[in-house]
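Fold it.
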Amino acid sequence: DNGDKVGGLVGYCAGACTISGCSVEGLAIKAYRDLGGIASAAKCADIKNNIVKNCSITADQSVNFYGKKDYNVGAIVGRSLEGTVDASNTSENVVTKAIGNAAEKALAEAAEGSTVTLKDVDAGNTVNIPSGLAKSVTIVSDATDKSAVSKFEIPSGAKIEDLTIKDFEPTLQSGADNSFVHIPADASFDMTLKDVKAAGDGVKNNWNTLVRVESCDNAELESEIVIDGVEIDGAKYLVYSPGGSRAISLTVKNCSIKNLTSWMVMANGSQFKNVTIDNCTIENCSGIVKFVMDSFTFTNNTLVGDNKETTIFYPVYDILGIHTINTQNTKKK
């Protein structure tokens, strides 16, 4: 029945007690909020010298929903209120994950190479991509409500392989972290945004952006973003990163980019390894690219209207490698 608290041995361990020398192996544990391989929640307990092996532990708030709660999922104890969970406890091959709604449940259960249509998503909802997402999954919107998802959140430490997010129409919100796709510092990813239509509010001080990648100091953490067939109007950035040295390759192609209040691609401190912009229409934007690490390619694009920079070269600086700007680019009023 997807209860609130489930543990491999005990649910809610309250009062002075000791759990020691126990083992749990081969279980699939599922509950709503507090889950652990030994105990879901422990108060005034001394838990030591236990082992949990070969288990899956899943917080699932898509079943018997009674409000969004903080997940507490642990290989040994989900939530420790008081007492001691000793370092002598060990776990091996324990997979933990959380499913916040029906959409996240569908993603968690998706097979490699499958297409998942997100349904029953509350308006303005954030969808958390599961860290164990299968390879080559395509996420598409429900045709009856393409604007329901306001954000996709990539989990910390995830390795996302060949993910496609397609055919959504988000309204980008105001605030410090208001991207349609948010990527933490320690995640690696191979991701395509396809046929997305995004609208901002046109206010420069509102940091709305299609993709935000957090700072990272690991130059070996290679990742790739492809933005294909996207239409964006009135945001601050198309792609923004506050800095770092992650090895990101970014391709923007076949896009319509209008009325951005700042840079189209903003890497505040040599964030991206390679940037390619091809066959895009860029209209009334404040800049194109600020900071590129190794190479920059700008081909077959059309600049329209009052783009703030008088040439396409000026926005591109701190280039340390190859750059290609071909004669097929055109500028129109």
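Residues 309-322 have pLDDT under 50 and may be disordered.
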